[in-house]
């Protein structure tokens, strides 16, 4: 197994008021005098778990994690159907990142993102390139309309039985339209049974389309009904709006990343997020290295992917004086 850094606990944490009635949980780990590194978790809505802390040398890095709006320990909780998502968009999250950076007195930081966190990291770096020293990205996504259609419809060609169940959970008259829109409507239904079924089926499909690597095990977080509803609400909210980004903007504006060293790590068997997304970005981001990992899939699904992420953070850690 890939050897992660030892488990650590935060040396500081808090709740930051970011406006619109939202307070985001943040924590700092590792060396308070170390090189700042920011973690952007996936989902949207997965939250920043302690595993992320172990991807950095704690003696070298000041590791900052935060739960994006509506999830994890941030408030209000998107698992509550009364929580409005109107002020939960990519521009809001970019603003939260900048507010957190200033709150912590950080001039620039390495930014790590996985899956949805890659989309957010790229959007942030293209808007604030002087605040990003390096980018370490794995399971590269751009959350374009084409990618959303791929995951919610085209993947049915690979998992036909499972996709038919995913589609058939939607009212019959909506099955030929946007499935992400249909699920978002069900997740907002006044009937809690409708919401629960939609959340369960959405998360069941999430577990299927990332299951291409050997030894895949179902995500135990989906057993929690609150997590299911929170996660499904936030994913469908962002996906139905194509990440609240102009379609294709992340690749179009990748020239703004010039001068920012980056490593993109992607599994060749990542059918959920096909490798061509990372490849196209690598063609227009002059300082990026693309690492394609053999037979591994989405996320940190295998040792080689995890080792490549660790190698990237080790490469960018500050040189210790003799």
Automatic annotation (TrEMBL):
- Major site of localization recorded for this protein: cytoplasm
This protein's UniProt keywords: Aminopeptidase, Cytoplasm, Hydrolase, Protease
Organism domain of life: Bacteria
Q: Where in the cell is it found?
A: Cytoplasm
- Matching NCBIfam families: pro_imino_pep_1
Q: Which family does it belong to?
A: Belongs to the peptidase S33 family.
Please state what the protein is called.
Proline iminopeptidase
């Amino acid at each position: 197994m890939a050897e992660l850094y030892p488990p650590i606990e935060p040396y500081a944490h808090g709740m930051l008021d970011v406006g619109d009635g939202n307070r985001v949980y943040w924590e700092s780990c590792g060396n308070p005098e170390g090189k700042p590194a920011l973690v952007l978790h996936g989902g949207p809505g997965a939250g920043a778990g302690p595993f992320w802390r172990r991807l950095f040398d704690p003696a070298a890095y000041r590791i900052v994690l935060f739960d994006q709006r509506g999830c994890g320990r941030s408030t209000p909780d998107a698992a509550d159907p009364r929580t409005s998502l109107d002020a939960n968009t990519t521009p809001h999250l970019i603003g939260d990142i900048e507010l957190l950076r200033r709150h912590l007195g950080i001039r620039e930081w390495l930014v790590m993102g996985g899956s949805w966190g890659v989309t957010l990291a790229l959007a942030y770096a293209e808007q604030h390139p002087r605040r990003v020293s390096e980018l370490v990205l794995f399971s590269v996504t751009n959350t374009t309309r084409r990618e959303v259609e791929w995951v919610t419809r085209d993947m049915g060609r690979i998992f036909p039985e499972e996709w038919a169940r995913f589609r058939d959970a939607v009212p019959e008259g909506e099955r030929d339209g946007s499935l992400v829109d249909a699920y978002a409507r069900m997740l907002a239904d006044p009937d809690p049974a409708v919401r629960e079924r939609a959340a369960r089926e959405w998360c069941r499909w999430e577990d299927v389309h990332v299951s291409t690597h050997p030894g895949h095990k179902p995500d135990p977080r989906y057993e929690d009904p609150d997590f299911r509803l929170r996660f499904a609400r936030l994913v469908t909210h962002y996906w139905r709006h194509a990440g609240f980004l102009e379609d294709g903007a992340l690749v179009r504006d990748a020239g703004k990343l010039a001068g920012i060293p980056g490593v993109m790590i992607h599994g060749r068997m990542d059918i959920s997020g096909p490798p061509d997304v990372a490849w196209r970005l690598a063609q227009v981001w002059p300082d990026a290295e693309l690492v394609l990992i053999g037979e591994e899939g989405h996320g940190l699904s295998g040792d080689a992917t995890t080792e490549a992420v660790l190698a990237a953070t080790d490469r960018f850690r500050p040189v210790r004086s003799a």
